[in-house]
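Reopening closed ticket. The problem is back. First fold of the pair:
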Amino acid sequence: MGPVNGNATEEVKVLLDYIHSLDGKILAGQHSYNENPSSFYNKAKEISGKAPAVWGTDFYWNGKDNPGERIVKEAIDKYHEGAIVTLMWHVGQPKHDPPFSWRESVQGEISKKEWDDMLTPGTELFQRWTQQVDQVAVHLKKLQEAKVPILWRPYHEMNGVWFWWGNKKGKDGFVKLWKQLYDRLVNHHRLNNLIWVWNANGPRDIPGDQAYDYKDFYPGHKYVDILATDVYHGDYEQKDYDQLVKLAKGKPIALGEVGQLPRPLVLEAQPKWSWFMVWSNWIETANSPERVKEVYGYDKTITKDEIQFTNER
């Protein structure tokens, strides 16, 4: 099953083919905040004795300066060192200018009119949205020029209630936003180095903190290469896994973010996960050194030195 972008780079094709071929094995991954983009990646190696196969960070602009250049440099370095790169985007609402406040902008409410305007060409909010996307495209293009394929997972946890892009059901909801982003990056900016990772959250019915069924937010197989979900508290529910496998229909699935690592017993019961990525300091705060070593030492876990695909780097 090839990439959804028919013009995808050779590097994307090779990486996606490799992920399809994992056959019950899982890539170990680690996220770091962009202000120090190697810190927790190095911490995971320090604890486990092995470097993670997947390195990740976030284009979230919450400081004085745009972190894009720093992210590009680190992504190129990590790729040349042999790691797989995944990037995400905690972006503020288009009506706000960066840097973005977490509570007010990333997690703030967006009105129905603002949402509809953002998805309507010709409006001021649509123009501001395109400017946001164009800013991040500048950095993604530099990675394309460097021949770095990206596991790209924007607007994640969209089935939850906590981000401005979250809990928007229906054809004019999140699905429309995803397709609009895909069109802007692929067809307008000609970004062909992206593997499109649709990354939801594990469903839950906690009052005020709900995450709803995956299927209500899925844009369809024409716009998604890999389906992922986030699980933070060890609640690797078999029914949720089965639901994602069913929705994927043969496409790879992954654990885009985790807090507590999935134990080998979970991975035996849920063998289709392609990778996990521990969120930043949770490698220390939510996992004992023994658990980290247990999961990294599991015979089906792949670390950086065990990656088996070739791309000239």
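Second fold of the pair, where the issue appears:
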Amino acid sequence: MEQFLAGVISGGTATLILHPLDLLKTRYQLNEKTRNTGIRNNIKNIYMQNGIINGLYRGLPANIMGSTFSWGLYFLGYEYLKKQVSNYRGQLSSIDYLFCSAVAGTCTASITNPFWMVKTRVCGQDYNNPNSYKSTLGTRFLIQILDAFRRIFVEEGVRGFYRGFLAGLLGVSHGAVHFMVYENLKKMRKKLRQTETPDTIEVMVMSLISKITASSTTYPYQVIRSRIQNRIDNEARIMTVAYNIYSKEGLLGFFKGLAPGILRVLPATCITFVLYERIIQALTK
């Protein structure tokens, strides 16, 4: 369980620190009229109108639950599959890394999609909408999330929690590319340096290169998934949403929120992987 615990701590820490950028990315993705500009002004406006907790950290509980379980389950499944494949095939290849990552990602997505669904709804709702998820003074931070879970279940059923699931499965390719590049970089580093454990700077560089590679090739699925999750009707389909984005917003529409997403994901990746590697070291000594 070392991998699960390390994933929970590292993923949760990164999310806690960088949630405001995740919130802003989600709001960009859901708005057909906005552009990837004014990050500083948008964060300032959210803070001025709603403060830190109910503004910049809106939706944090769902994001924390989604991130901790996602990273914990992902690392647990990924390391387990690597061990099994290694026992069977010997040294792992790039295809083996892709396979292990894809299977771990698919299993993780099927468990954590409800958290991402709620996070998208809460982060994307109009702050002044009287029909928004319940918030009461003093406890609104958590009550809002609980009310979102309740209303989605009552109004949309269990299926409501799995809106965007198929689009989310496209995101499995993101994790697969990310870990394939990261593992191959670790192999190269080990061969060059002749040491088993990478230092902090090496982990940061390898995680950044692998994350940039994965993000630049798979980002559009995040926009499609967010649009599907935020729709109330049942006609949202991957190809329909993709066509609407392209016809109304062009190719750039698929990259809305990329700027705050990159600002969030790069430090988040560094924090997550550095903490993960160090926690694993500490737990396995």
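Update: turned out to be a display glitch only; the data is intact. Residues 2-284 form a domain with the Mitochondrial carrier fold fold (CATH 1.50.40.10). The mean pLDDT is 81. Please close again.
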